[in-house]
Design a protein that fits this description.
The chain has six helices and 29 strands.
Length: 462
């Protein structure tokens, strides 16, 4: 019915996977946050802050500005001033006690909560949504459930409100609905190592007698998995230890068997999609302080001569995912220090220019702030995040260019040993790192950088 994420540093996120999200943070974060939830500085008046730090009074602009681009999700930017109005007939119908009115009913199941959490906002949201959904029952149920979660989280005892023909819940095998479910203590991890529960009562599916939760299933107590170093995992499941030195597998009857594994180069131990394991490393080439270039494999040096450099490209120009990144170094700041002032990025179908001032051009045309995030092609997206321009290709190429002249180019491990340019070949080794376009090696990093000046832009320079 809801998922709760708790962390050691005090963050708690509750999500009903549909309708309701609550984020609780400790006061140490006061004034340090940004996003739709505001900056948490105790001032209600300055909440609408955009990602760049500017303020707005337009709630739609504020909302849209914090939208993330998730490739498989289509989202509209809201209706602004043109939001549909609920006609009087519908509004009256949905305000009744059999619908949204239940939230406010003085003799209703939630009456005890009204003193603790004002039902008015929930009521308005319910009415708006129900109107838009033409009275669809599941929309009503989720609206009511949102209030139930909030009330129960605040410790209020509400009365039973679902019944067979109204918002009934279907629970997984070997479990049943309870208004005040024991969803924490009746889990395998609590059986084996108790102490993780701080329960306020909440509705949900509770395992039948003799069964306990293992992940999201109710299993007979005797088939619980294992606890190893404070982590519960299911039978047959294997986990890696912190540094991937050991792989531990959970066998029936709770036995954990560990074997020494360790990662072998070019693989390293890290988390991917929340799962620890041995993976090939993502490559990162960077320009810091405007001119210090560090290659994918870790060699570093300062770029000292102005010009447009080919920092990285896929060597094989016929490759299915081809790209090329050029960086212009020029001394045009106050202190006349050389720095990266612009990047020129070629993808199939898009030539993108980004300047230090965050002016963006795609295929010769400027991109306005309001157009961001901008889709340059079906697989290339441009966005601005925390003061940096971000170019992203779905094949896991990500460039982040800051106004300070700092640039990072991150590429997926699939580009291992496929790259050419000043950022190196990304083969996991610095042996033979300073290879010039003609294939010759040098030990002089200045000569190396010079050799990687972009050929089409080097007239008059050398
Ligand atoms: Ca504020
Ligand atoms: Ca290398």
């Amino acid at each position: 019915m809801k998922i709760v994420l708790r962390t050691r540093f005090g963050l708690e996120v509750t999500y009903d996977t549909w309708y309701y999200v609550a984020v609780v943070v400790p006061s140490t974060y006061e004034g340090k946050l940004g996003g739709l939830c505001g900056n948490y500085n105790g001032d209600k008046e300055d909440e609408f802050i955009l990602p760049g730090g500017n303020r707005t009074t337009n709630v739609t602009e504020f909302g849209v500005s914090w939208k993330m681009d998730v490739s498989w999700v289509q989202c509209t930017d809201g209706c602004g001033d043109k939001c549909p109005k609920c006609d009087v007939r519908k509004a009256t119908l949905y305000s009744k006690d059999e619908a949204c009115g239940l939230l406010k009913a003085a003799d209703g199941p939630f009456a005890a909560c009204a003193r603790v959490i004002d039902p008015d906002t929930f009521f308005k949201n319910c009415l708006y949504d129900l109107c838009k959904a033409n009275g669809q029952t599941d929309v009503l149920c989720y609206s009511l459930q949102a209030y139930v979660i909030a009330c129960q989280a605040a410790g209020v005892q509400i009365q039973s409100w679902r019944h067979k023909n109204f918002c009934a819940v279907s629970c997984p095998v070997n479990s049943h609905y309870e208004l005040c479910a024991d969803t924490c203590e009746a889990t395998c991890s609590e059986m084996i190592a108790p102490g993780g529960c701080n329960t306020t009562c909440s509705e949900g599916c509770q395992c039948d007698a003799g069964y306990v939760f293992s992940g999201n299933k109710c299993v007979p107590m005797k088939t619980c998995g294992c606890i190893y170093r404070g982590r519960y995992f299911q039978e047959e499941e294997a986990i890696f230890t912190q540094d991937c030195a050991e792989k531990c597998t959970c066998y029936a009857t709770g036995a954990v068997v560990c074997e020494k594994v360790g990662c072998h180069a070019p693989e390293v131990c890290h988390l991917r999609n929340g799962v620890r394991g041995c993976y090939r490393k993502e490559g990162v080439c960077s320009v810091k302080e405007g001119q210090r270039l560090t290659t994918f494999d870790g060699a570093a040096g300062d770029v000292r001569a102005p010009g447009i450099y080919e920092v990285t490209t896929v060597c094989n120009q016929r490759s299915a995912v081809w790209f090329r990144v050029l960086v212009e170094f020029r001394a045009c700041n106050d202190h006349r220090k050389l720095g990266a002032v612009a990047i020129y990025v070629y993808f199939k179908g898009a030539f993108i220019t980004v300047t230090k001032e965050k002016v963006i051009w795609v295929n010769g045309r400027p991109v306005k702030q309001a157009q961001l995030p901008f889709k340059a092609t079906s697989v290339v997206t441009i966005s601005v995040e925390a003061g940096a321009v971000i170019l992203e290709h779905s094949a896991k190429i990500r460039l982040r260019f800051r106004g300070s002249g700092d640039l990072t180019v991150a590429v997926a491990d699939t580009f291992t040993n496929q790259l050419c340019g000043a950022c190196g070949n990304f083969d996991g080794s610095t042996n033979g790192e300073l290879r010039m376009p003609d294939g010759k090696l040098t030990t002089d990093i200045q000569k190396y950088f010079q050799a990687w000046l972009a050929k089409e832009f080097r007239s008059c320079l050398i």
